[in-house]
Design a protein that fits this description.
eight-stranded parallel beta sheet; 4 helices; elongated; 207 residues; 25% strand; seven-stranded parallel beta sheet; alpha/beta
Length: 207
């Protein structure tokens, strides 16, 4: 017999406490859904190999600080979560088309980070780390601060984007078409951004 497990657990708090104490994605999801406290000892979540924790439907403004997710985290199209603080994802972090506005403190993503079409998102925290590609097209992102990106960086089509930190380390190409970054010849680019592996691509020509 199929039941609505959320409604069922809401009627039986003893069972809710049992399932919410599970140190996996289901336990964390229940805590967030029912507004239960999350002690520091339960903020490290281990998912089965290759699995993604989907919290897109969670109705809260932010996730708990100091979360460590062993696996991937999906917040795509979330209409509620506005911020993240001190988060480690040992997989991919998907934030595309969500209401996310900022990430504060520590940001460590072992896989790829996707913030495309997050139209209220403005900047990344300093000393961020992305172990694969960073996709940040169609945002309100204005700058790339000091940090490390091991894969490609896509910040094209951000009409407010104008600043790249000289301390940004990028091991592959950075694409910045249709932004406020002016076109540069390769020599000038290498002098200005010595820690970016390859060429900056921009459609804006110098006047």
């Amino acid at each position: 017999v199929r039941i609505d497990h959320i409604a069922f657990l809401g009627k039986y708090p003893e069972l809710l406490n049992v399932f919410a104490s599970m140190k996996n994605g289901f336990g964390l999801t229940l805590k967030l859904l029912f507004g239960l406290p999350i002690p520091e000892s339960e903020k490290e979540i281990t998912l089965p190999a290759g699995k993604t924790l989907n919290l897109s439907s969670i109705k809260c403004d932010t996730l708990p600080e100091n979360l460590v997710i062993h696996g991937s985290l999906n917040l795509e199209k979330s209409d509620h979560i506005k911020s993240l603080k001190n988060i480690t994802v040992n997989g991919d972090l998907f934030l595309g088309q969500s209401s996310i506005e900022r990430i504060e403190g520590k940001l460590y993503v072992q896989g790829k980070l996707d913030i495309e079409n997050c139209q209220k998102f403005t900047t990344l925290p300093e000393d961020f780390f992305v172990g694969s590609s960073l996709r940040a097209k169609y945002c309100d992102i204005k700058e790339l601060p000091k940090g490390v990106v091991k894969g490609m960086i896509y910040v094209s089509s951000n009409v407010l984007f104008k600043t790249i930190s000289k301390d940004l380390i990028a091991e592959k190409n950075l694409y910045a078409n249709d932004t406020l970054i002016p076109f540069m010849e390769e020599k000038e680019f290498k002098e200005k951004y010595p820690n970016i592996k390859d060429t900056l691509f921009s459609s804006l020509k110098k006047k």
